[in-house]
Predict the 3D structure of the following.
Amino acid sequence: MAAVPGGNTRSIVSAAAVLTVVALTASCTGSSSSAGRAPGSRGPTSSASAAPTLPDTLAEDASVDLSGSATVTVGDSAPVRLASTKGQPIGLELHTDGTGSIALSMHGSGGDIVAIEGPARSHWSSPAVHVTVLLASSGMLVDTASGNPCTTSYDVVTEAAVTGTVRCQAVDGRAKVPVVVRFRAA
Amino acid sequence: MSFRRLMTVGVLAVSAVVLPALPGSAAPSTGPGCTYPTNSPRLTITASPSTITAGNFSTVFGKFTVNGCAIKNAVIRIQRRVVVNGRATGHWANVKSSTTSSKGIYAAAYFATRNVRVRAHFSGTNGFPTTNTFSVPLNVHTAITESITKRSGCRLTIAGHVNPVKVNRVVRIQKRGPRGSFHGWTTVAKATTNRHGHYSVTKTFVCGRGYNLSAYIAKDSINLSGRSATLFGVKPRH
């Protein structure tokens, strides 16, 4: 596995979009640990038909809409910057036990998109968070729901701020290319 | 700025962000380096976020390929089925369309107001067969606002409205701890929506005490529950 560039996990970036070249597969780096509650209403999107009844997490949780930005770095290329938009705030729900869930979607110029949805908690990482990175100009698309594993690590998850990093490895031809998304919201 | 104007500005902004220069009406095709399609095309879909609040939008996007090659200039229709009590009902209806870029990428902003399932659909043409994605859920919270008017005698009037409009529904006014110290919600008042989706309730609170208040409406057959932004530090006055 190739090394993931960049280091400061506190950096100020929030979900960003990364592109993948056609037919790419990704493998992932990072560790996972258990989360407490994994809120159900913001889990990964997947397959078809019957939709299960969703738990009404808002009845118990604090909820807040945040705004933020992110950078996406593919290999040694220059970071791509993305940001949340007015009609698409970063949604965060927090339970009394400190667990929560995030729904983050950010856009960049040229149609780049980064989406992060799933459980969130301070100082916690997991490969189970649904991550999608689209870099429109190159056609790169990384989606954990399509079998491209990524690990999402959160530094801080509070009502006031969320910071974290997503690490994936995209496959470009025969080479593995690290994809790093640093995101921040407040 | 009016809500309508905000929405207009929002849609234009979103279009600029989500829909960068897409090709026109050329027939779908792959690049010159690709062999003629021998396998079925592959169409992917993501709706992000998969849970929104009414009035906000989800970006529905994906990629159309065959044999690993992008299919450009293909018209992809975003379709939805409504969801009632957790089950998809009715027919697929077109809600948006997008033409794939030279990289096979399509994207569209979808302002849903109720729970739906969405899929991407390509109507076969130019040698490419009709292709559908699986469907993905797009769940929508009821949007609810809350405004507070301080009245004499430590009374507060709490009012707002819900979107989509819901009639004769209970709205709970709830309090919580200060920001950064959340220990759950306690209901302090209730109101009922009228035929316009508006609600209002006036209640006497403890004078001088600070309240952190939010309005909550439970989920129903077509929407997830809704919660307003919390108004912190509301102090009733004598």
